[in-house]
């Protein structure tokens, strides 16, 4: 097929690709975004444009330039000839069509042979994400690149910001949120910052369910690492929640009272305080979120995301209350009652908090409750 | 999030079979076309979508079997045994499965080195039971499905640790009953299909939270009749396949409104060019054309061959090769 490309076209394509290469070589660290600019007909000037930190290519030339770069790369690949000079064609082809795994794989070969450097590759993949924020290949490539760096040398917060930018530009960006979860498993110390970040994101993008799912992931992970806020383990939400409908004398207003209310079978001396603090911290957050959702419903009306999120956080709350009530999770070594999990119906009648949590589900979600809780 | 469906002049409630056959047969005729180059990286799957779609419509002989098999033979990698999307591209489980599916349809598995394919799949399984998609190490439940499907169709499932593979797939289940691409990832109808399909192949469907999952899948049906793939997303014809196939395997197809879905799917036909698009009025493509036709077959549409929900291939072909597990309704 190469023969079909006229010589004149070849010269033109080489010129465009070289020009793109020049911009990337001289100022890749400055170029922040790449996009295809819609210009349907040929103009008498260069189709590559650089305005401040924004790089663009005019749409009319793409079909020529892409086909040219594509053929050249694939014919090299077939002959197993992969010189470093192929990179400029890869840059061009991937920026136009980021879905081609084979092109990314050639970059991997070159990285392994130290013919491409990591910093530039991180920059390049983030440039691709500026054009296609949901590019699974670009995220996957970044995860692969990180395997060459030692954990201590990595600033994971930068990666979280990249995910955040990509999620903001594309609703329900599956790959960006997955990538973010991967980062958080590498850097669990960043989990606590996600509480504020995801709340902001949700309030700005109320119909993006991926963020609600992510927040649920963050909550479960925080519980796994037994996190709580050492400086301010404020439990106001729980107190307010359990005190609804209680007479003044019966109101709960201190930790002993709260434990007695939540876990009547457990004596406070036997409790592991770190586990207790993290449990209460999480319950407090879940109740906070239930209130937030009520507030969002008042402002925006009903959304599927609200209903779905309520279900999953309530089931998370039930799971951990069950864990603490019916196993020796909180009191390891002391609690001898039973480790056999009870049937759902038994639990429901025994625990008033669970009762109260279930009441938080929408009345139109009644069938779901009956069947699955 | 749903959409308004406006029935424009000329929309039809009939399946335009002739048009769709024409669309699939002419697809990719212009090999110098820019779009054709842009989609080269998934060519093998493109051919699978086309051949399967034609076969379901009873017109497989409209494509040239010989040249398709020659094409596949060129795509098998001599060193790894894996198959690529197109000559000159790298092998991957995704395209290996498409190639195997096409070869099964043509009863031509002997044309390639099947043992080498088995070794390739085996080499990609990880200690936790998951699968890499290729040698570069990405993990995804899609690849678990591909691995199981390839080995089942070629009668080599013993090559992998099915027990561990199952544990991995089950570790991707979420509180809502659904599955994502890896542990903790959001539930997604396409990936639920892969996980349910995997469990159907390995006869482990009893390990699912059947009712909760079926409930979630039913909630994908919107007022327009169409199905989306996740909460708050738009309806899309390809999810008709993924959701419907999963519900069929779970024995819960009757939990959604077939009539409304049928209507939605038929509105996604392009009456001029043939083919189906993701949503009414969009540009048709070969991918959505297979899944539109496949979903109609699951719904029992007349004049279409019965499709197997697990493998997305004609039932008559799967019957000869492998017995999948399907739950009673
Ligand atoms: Zn689709």
UniProtKB/TrEMBL annotation, chain A:
GO molecular function annotation:
protein prenyltransferase activity
Q: What are the record keywords, sorted?
A: Prenyltransferase, Repeat, Transferase
Q: List the GO cellular component terms.
A: cytoplasm
Claim: Transferase is one of the keywords in the record: yes
UniProt-listed Gene3D superfamilies: Protein prenylyltransferase
Q: Does the keyword Oxidoreductase apply?
A: no
**PANTHER family xref list:** PROTEIN FARNESYLTRANSFERASE ALPHA SUBUNIT/RAB GERANYLGERANYL TRANSFERASE ALPHA SUBUNIT (PTHR11129), PROTEIN PRENYLTRANSFERASE ALPHA SUBUNIT REPEAT-CONTAINING PROTEIN 1 (PTHR11129:SF3)
Task: Report the sequence similarity comment from the record.
Answer: Belongs to the protein prenyltransferase subunit alpha family.
- This one is known as CLUMA_CG020996, isoform A
**To which species is this protein native?**
Clunio marinus
From TrEMBL, chain B:
From the UniProt record, list the reaction(s) this protein catalyses.
Answer: geranylgeranyl diphosphate + L-cysteinyl-[protein] = S-geranylgeranyl-L-cysteinyl-[protein] + diphosphate
Task: List the cofactors.
Answer: Zn(2+)
Q: Name one Pfam family in it.
A: Prenyltrans
Tell me where in this chain the Prenyltransferase alpha-alpha toroid domain is found.
Answer: 15-313
Top-level enzyme category: transferase
Could you cite one Gene Ontology molecular function of this protein?
Answer: Rab geranylgeranyltransferase activity
**According to the UniProt entry, what is the EC number of this protein?**
2.5.1.60
InterPro entries in the record: PGGT1B-like (IPR045089), Prenyltrans (IPR001330), Ptb1 (IPR026873), Terpenoid_cyclase/PrenylTrfase (IPR008930)
* CDD domains the record matches: GGTase-II
Q: Which GO terms describe its cellular component?
A: Rab-protein geranylgeranyltransferase complex
Family, according to the entry, reads as follows: Belongs to the protein prenyltransferase subunit beta family.
Subunit comment: Heterotrimer composed of RABGGTA, RABGGTB and CHM; within this trimer, RABGGTA and RABGGTB form the catalytic component B, while CHM (component A) mediates peptide substrate binding. The Rab GGTase dimer (RGGT) interacts with CHM (component A) prior to Rab protein binding; the association is stabilized by geranylgeranyl pyrophosphate (GGpp). The CHM:RGGT:Rab complex is destabilized by GGpp. Interaction of RABGGTB with prenylated PTP4A2 precludes its association with RABGGTA and inhibits enzyme activity. Interacts with CHODL.
| Function text | Catalyzes the transfer of a geranylgeranyl moiety from geranylgeranyl diphosphate to both cysteines of Rab proteins with the C-terminal sequence -XXCC, -XCXC and -CCXX, such as RAB1A, RAB3A, RAB5A and RAB7A. Catalyzes the transfer of a geranylgeranyl moiety from geranylgeranyl diphosphate to both cysteines of proteins with the C-terminal sequence -XXCC, -XCXC and -CCXX.
**Protein known as:** Geranylgeranyl transferase type-2 subunit beta
Origin organism is Clunio marinus
Task: List the top taxonomic levels of the source.
Answer: Eukaryota, Metazoa, Ecdysozoa, Arthropoda, Hexapoda
């Amino acid at each position: 097929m190469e023969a079909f490309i006229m010589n004149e076209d070849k010269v033109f394509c080489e010129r465009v690709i070289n020009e793109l290469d020049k911009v990337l070589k001289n100022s890749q660290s400055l170029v922040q975004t790449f996009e295809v600019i819609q210009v349907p007909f040929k103009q008498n000037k260069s189709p590559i444009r650089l305005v401040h930190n924004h790089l663009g290519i005019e749409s009319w030339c793409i079909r020529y330039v892409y086909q040219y770069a594509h053929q050249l790369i694939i014919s090299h690949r077939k002959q197993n000839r992969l010189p470093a000079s192929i990179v400029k064609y890869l840059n061009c082809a991937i920026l136009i069509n980021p879905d081609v795994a084979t092109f990314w794989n050639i970059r991997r070969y070159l990285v392994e042979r130290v013919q491409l450097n990591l910093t530039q590759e991180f920059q390049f993949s983030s440039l691709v994400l500026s054009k296609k924020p949901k590019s699974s290949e670009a995220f996957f490539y970044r995860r692969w690149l990180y395997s060459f760096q030692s954990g201590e040398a990595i600033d994971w917060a930068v990666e979280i910001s990249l995910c955040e930018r990509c999620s903001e530009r594309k609703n329900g960006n599956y790959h960006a949120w997955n990538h973010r979860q991967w980062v958080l498993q590498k850097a669990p110390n960043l989990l606590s910052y996600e509480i504020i970040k995801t709340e902001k994101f949700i309030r700005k993008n109320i119909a993006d369910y991926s963020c609600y799912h992510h927040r649920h992931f963050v909550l479960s992970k925080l519980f796994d690492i037994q996190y709580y806020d050492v400086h301010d383990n404020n439990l106001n939400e729980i107190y307010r929640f359990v005190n609804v409908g209680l007479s003044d004398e019966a109101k709960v207003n201190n930790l002993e009272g709260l434990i007695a209310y939540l876990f009547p079978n457990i004596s406070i001396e036997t409790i592991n305080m770190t586990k207790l603090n993290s449990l209460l911290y999480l319950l407090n957050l879940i109740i906070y979120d239930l209130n937030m959702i009520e507030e969002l419903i008042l402002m925006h009306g009903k959304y599927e995301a609200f209903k779905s999120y309520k279900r999953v956080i309530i089931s998370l709350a039930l799971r951990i209350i069950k864990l603490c009530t019916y196993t020796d999770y909180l009191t390891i070594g002391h609690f001898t009652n039973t480790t056999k999990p009870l049937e759902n119906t038994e639990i429901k009648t025994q625990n008033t908090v669970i009762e109260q949590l279930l009441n938080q589900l929408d009345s139109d979600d009644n069938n779901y409750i009956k069947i699955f809780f | 999030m749903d959409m308004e469906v406006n029935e424009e002049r000329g929309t039809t409630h009939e399946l335009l079979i002739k048009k769709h056959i024409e669309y699939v047969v002419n697809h990719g005729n212009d090999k110098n076309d820019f779009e054709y180059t842009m989609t080269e990286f998934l060519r093998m799957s493109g051919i699978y979508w086309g051949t399967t779609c034609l076969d379901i419509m009873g017109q497989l002989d409209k494509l040239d079997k010989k040249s398709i098999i020659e094409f596949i033979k060129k795509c098998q990698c001599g060193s790894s045994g894996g198959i690529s999307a197109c000559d000159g591209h790298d092998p991957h489980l995704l395209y290996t499965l498409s190639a195997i599916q096409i070869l099964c349809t043509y009863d031509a598995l002997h044309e390639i080195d099947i043992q080498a394919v088995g070794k390739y799949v085996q080499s990609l399984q990880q200690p936790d039971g998951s699968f890499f998609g290729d040698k570069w190490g990405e993990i995804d439940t899609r690849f678990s499905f591909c691995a199981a499907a390839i080995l089942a169709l070629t009668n080599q499932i013993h090559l992998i640790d099915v027990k561990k593979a199952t544990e991995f797939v089950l570790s991707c289940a979420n509180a809502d009953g659904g599955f994502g691409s890896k542990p903790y990832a959001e539930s997604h109808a396409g990936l639920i299909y892969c996980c349910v399909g995997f469990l159907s192949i390995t006869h482990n469907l009893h390990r699912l939270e059947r009712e909760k999952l079926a409930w979630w899948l039913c909630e994908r049906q919107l007022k327009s009749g169409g199905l989306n793939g996740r909460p708050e997303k738009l309806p899309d014809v390809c999810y008709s396949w993924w959701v419907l196939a999963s519900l069929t395997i779970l024995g819960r197809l009757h939990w959604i409104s077939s009539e409304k879905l049928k209507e939605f799917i038929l509105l996604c036909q392009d009456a001029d060019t043939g083919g189906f698009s993701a949503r009414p009025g969009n540009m048709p493509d070969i991918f959505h054309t297979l899944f539109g036709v496949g979903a109609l077959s699951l719904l029992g549409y007349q004049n279409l061959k019965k499709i197997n929900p697990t493998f997305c291939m004609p039932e008559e072909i799967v019957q000869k090769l492998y017995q999948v597990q399907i739950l009673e309704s």
